[in-house]
UniProtKB/TrEMBL annotation:
Keyword vocabulary terms for this entry: Cell membrane, Membrane, Transmembrane, Transmembrane helix, Transport
Location in the cell: Cell membrane
Keyword Transmembrane tagged: yes
Transmembrane segments: 12-30, 60-83, 95-119, 131-153, 203-222, 242-266
InterPro entries the UniProt entry points to: MetI-like, MetI-like_sf
Pfam families in alphabetical order: BPD_transp_1
Primary subcellular site in the record, as a coarse category: membrane
Keyword Transmembrane helix found: yes
Family: Belongs to the binding-protein-dependent transport system permease family.
Domain of life: Bacteria
The protein's name in its UniProt record: ABC transporter permease subunit
Amino acid sequence: MAWLPPLSPRALRLACALPALVFFAAFWLLPVGQLLMLPASQGGCTYFAVLTEARYLKSLLQTLALSAGVTAATLVLGAVVGLTLARRRFRGRALLLSLMTLPLSFPGVIIGFFVILLGGRQGLVADLSSALGAGRLTFAYGLGGLFLGYLYFSLPRAIASYTAAAEALDSALEEAARSLGANRWQVARDVWWPGLLPTTGSCAAMVFATAMGAFGTAFTLASRYEVLPITIYNEFTNYANFALAASLSMALGLITWLALMAARWLGASAPTPLAKSAAGV
């Protein structure tokens, strides 16, 4: 067996990192590079198709509106439920929290199926409305069904995040604020809000990015309200328009990346409750 000279620490680190670098190049750099180059095959204007073509712009605006609405509702409900669960101890609390976070294990298609069972043509609401003589009312296949499905999918994440963040808040700061005469709203503004602001930013970005790119739930429910992931799927699968699908994918990815970057900036610049307390509650 030939004698091999010992590797230097730097060479050893490079040798260990080489498989990861090859994997990164093969499954991220090359596909992303191809994605960036595809729209150029149909001209530079293809890169801006999401803004210049009415159909794609409408799909983008509908996706933005739906994602923003779901994010706002998720933050409000998640904060209320999370603070309540963090500050109250009662029998069955652990079981209730576990049941509330159970949808985390469900894929989007199953959540879409749940919405159809509730508000679809053969769902519970349709059966009840038919029995009452109002016809078979449905809401599963439009904006209402998508909103409910996205909210059902996102809310458990917000509840878990807010519960953990609220439990980590320093109760001494709240007690100090109350001893200085602060009422409940002042405590919420000066103690709870600064302490929960990083969680709010990260949770908002996570929910918004998830809603923007959600496919399984949208594929099940979006027959009357088209969102951008379904538009991309149709261009890629039904029309084999790879260049346009790549352009729309870039727009979707850029928006979600900006949302995540904004959340990181918000988390880094958020004031702490201690700083607010020092400034005077």
